[in-house]
Amino acid sequence: MAKSSLGTWSQRLLAATFLGGQVIVHLLQGKIHRRNTLEQLAIVGPDSFFIALLTAIFVGAVFTIQVAREFINFGAGNLVGGVLAVALTRELSPVLTAVVLAGRVGSAFAAEIGTMKVTEQIDALLMLKTDPIDYLVIPRLLACFIMLPVLTLLSLITGMSGGLLIATRIYNLSDTVFLDSARDFLDIWDIGSAMIKACCFGVLIAIIGCSWGLTTTGGAKGVGQSTTTAVVTALLVIFISNFFLSWVMFQGPGSGLSPRQ
User: Fold this and answer.
1) Which positions of the chain have pLDDT values less than 50?
2) CA gyration radius, the chain
3) What is the DSSP string of 228-246?
4) pTM of the model
5) CA 192/CA 74 separation, integer angstroms
């Protein structure tokens, strides 16, 4: 049973890869359904703001709690803001925002398209000479590609606000010192790397969610299974791709943590 499940999962992952190639071809041909894209932008973006920002503020606060006391004990309290800023920008904000979006939006994509598949609505689209990739997949992919960097940037700001609140209220650090430290440690490349990661994660979430929906079989039970495995697969792919992106972006000798002079 385990081997059968693994084989099915591998086949669906291969189908997702193939779907990604089809999407690239269709985008190069300019096949974009604008109305659907605008609808998905609203679903992926504004409807996800609250949960993404709520997650970010507590992540920033908890990180500061864990770091500030130790740094203060070592006489390095002036570095707390910089360390938080770098951690949020390089890793925490893009990854955790993508995780939130995978759970909320990726599952919705798989469930919605999976339901359309098992109720033969996809077949009806094909009979009407409407390509499901143009009508269903590309709008969702563009929405995730555009809105995840925006959510990541807002999460970064919110996380820094949560960290600043804890640092000033609990550990009596100066807000000026905290913000100056963040400014000194951050580089424009750090922000750029977060945006690149967010774009990649957005594409992966959309492709996996839509592909699992399009390959759904077995009625209502199949929709439930597709939704669950789509989220698990998206999370797994996010963490694996984050490793390789971080390796490419930050493994060089010049990317160590140090304040700018």
Assistant:
1) 1-3, 255, 261
2) 21
3) HHHHHHHHHHHHHHHHHHH
4) 0.90
5) 32
